[in-house]
Amino acid sequence: MNNQNHTPPLLIHNARLATPVASTDGAPNWQLTEIFPAALYCENGCIVRVGKEQEVLAGLPACEHLDAKQRLITPGLVDCHTHPVFFNLRSHEFVQRVQGKTYKEIAAAGGGIRYSVRDLRQADAEALLQRVLQRLDNFLQYGTTTIEAKSGYGLSLEHELKSLEILQQAGNQHPVEIVPTFLGAHEVPDEFRERREDYIKLVVNEMIPAVSQKKLARFADVFCEDHVFKAEASRRILRAAKAAGLRPKIHADQLTASGGAEVAIDVGAISADHLENTPPALFESLRRRGVVPVLLPGADFFIRATKYADARAMIAAGLPVAISTDFNPGTCMTENLPMIMTLACLHLRLTPAEAFVAATLHAAQALDMGNRIGSLEVGKQADVVIWNAESIEEIPYHFAVNLVQQVIKQGCVVWPRNQASVN
Ligand SMILES: [Zn+2]
């Protein structure tokens, strides 16, 4: 979606505003700014005035307006770690897990990511695009206006490029903004199981240069785990990606302490994601290196992990903790980021305000977009959610229920679809 230059001015008034505010000293600001009655005025998709209603309205020319009816308004949610480019679901694996199999056992038997890879390679590109668009609708209706989206179910040059091209097409057709990440190192595909080194060479020597040359991704990611890509292989892949202009991200220490956080520090990753088993002694180094920790409690919940990331120790160490769905067909089948806020409160022991900052401003920082999205401040993109709620804490408290009333992307009402014009 690119309507930045054509959007008519819009005023949202009679609102209860709650937003993170970017800090000026570099340390995370966990406090929300709350204003009532508040208003927000935008032009060309960007916020021009925001704050106390009286001050925003003073001298404002007549324009389209939207009465929030004293409801809560916030920045659009930012989901900074998702895997939406898969074809069929894996609900049969959910049944197996409910009956006692573990995620690792299912993967070792050829299920898991490798199942989705075989499936995606056979899928018709147009049919796949339609499924991705449907998933974007799900994100949007739960208040998410930007997602990071990874490839990683192709695992061949052809099918990784196809996955990233589908993300590009989806982003052109849908209001949800997509930030693409190349995840060719998600798993070793069936045909390379006996020659894993050859697959790493394929990723480094062919996939990364092609993705970079076609400008199909901003980031590159690796699933660093002893049974997938060990720390040394992850380091090689991410160094090659960085040299080709793709900023590193990493799935680190989810199932075991396998050195992923150290790799993030070594290569200067923009984010290190999961971190359930990361030694706390590394938190200070992550902070000094500017690595954003992205925590994914939905995956822990869904695979019934016994260990969650130590978010309180990370916050105490001064880290700008972000949270995300990790939306994927195996370990977290939900586009509902407010539900993840609930899990972050209960299992990571974040306060509702902290969970909200983690799902907006800090998530934007995990995408190097903290200066454009993630808070309602002058000069930022007008990505706004109007909630059927009066306060932030109602969002994680009233869990698994959709409280989103309306979604505005770059100054346009984009959800619900039938309310394309404002009152
Ligand atoms: Zn993931």
Summarize the structure.
It is built from 16 helices and 16 strands. It is α/β, with parallel strands linked by helices and 423 residues long.
Gross geometry: globular
Low-confidence regions: none
In quaternary terms, these chains amount to single chain
Bound molecules: zinc ion
Helix count from the secondary structure assignment: 16
Rg measurement, Å: 21 Å
Share in helix: 25-40%
Largest sheet: 8 strands, mixed
Number of strands: 16
Distance between the termini: 23 Å
- Proportion of beta-strand residues: 15-25%
Class computed from helices, strands and strand pairing: alpha/beta
Average pLDDT, rounded to a whole number, is: 96
Question: Keywords, please?
Answer:
423 residues, alpha/beta, eight-stranded parallel sheet, binds zinc ion
Describe this structure in words.
Helix 6 (157-173) packs parallel to helix 7 (196-213), helix 7 (196-213) runs parallel beside helix 8 (231-243) and helix 8 packs parallel to helix 9 (260-267). With 423 residues, the chain is of the alpha/beta class. The longest helix has 18 residues, at 196-213. It has helices at 53-57, 91-98, 103-108, 113-122, 125-141, 157-173, 196-213, 231-243, 260-267, 283-288, 297-302, 311-316, 337-347, 352-358, 361-365, 394-397; strands at residues 10-20, 32-43, 46-52, 64-67, 72-75, 77-79, 144-150, 177-185, 219-222, 247-252, 271-274, 292-295, 322-323, 384-387, 404-409, 412-415. The chain is globular, with a radius of gyration of 21 Å. Zinc ion (ZN) binds at residues 81, 83, 251, 326, 328.
